[in-house]
Write a structure and sequence with these properties.
Distance between the termini: 40 Å
Number of strands: 11
Oligomer: single chain
Shape: globular
Order of helices and strands: EEEEEEEEEEE
Strand content: over 45%
Number of helices: 0
Largest sheet: 7 strands, mixed
Length: about 120
């Protein structure tokens, strides 16, 4: 059974940092790309970042480039999203999803329930 479980969300002040985690199970993790996206209330789901399963190369949305860092630990079947300098307009539910292939194709076969990130002073 494919499972991806997000954690690490919470309340942070503007300019603060959070580290999100995505725990994967039920499939061969090594070699599969994993992406993060987010959805704020009343807004469309937005792709945030993806890390390749072949060479761990990373891609980022322009809105988060330079502030967010995605990484993976294949030994633990984990993907992380380090978020720095969070902005007041970035509260959302953050989701991770497994890509159908080793590179960031944008087609997913699994996803989690999400973790809530709230940015407020």
């Amino acid at each position: 059974q494919v499972q991806l479980v997000e954690s690490g969300g919470g309340l942070v002040q503007p300019g603060g940092s959070l580290r999100l985690s995505c725990a994967a199970s039920g499939f061969t993790f090594d070699g599969v790309a994993v992406a993060w996206d987010r959805q704020a209330p009343g807004k469309k789901r937005e792709w945030v970042s993806c890390i390749s399963g072949s060479d761990s190369s990373a891609k980022y949305a322009d809105s988060v480039k330079g502030r967010f860092t995605i990484s993976r630990d294949n030994a633990k079947n984990m993907v992380y999203l380090q978020m720095n300098s969070l902005k007041p307009e970035e509260p959302a539910v953050y989701y991770c999803a497994a890509d159908v292939g080793p590179d960031c194709s944008g087609s997913y076969f699994g996803g989690g329930q999400g973790t809530q990130v709230t940015v407020s002073s």
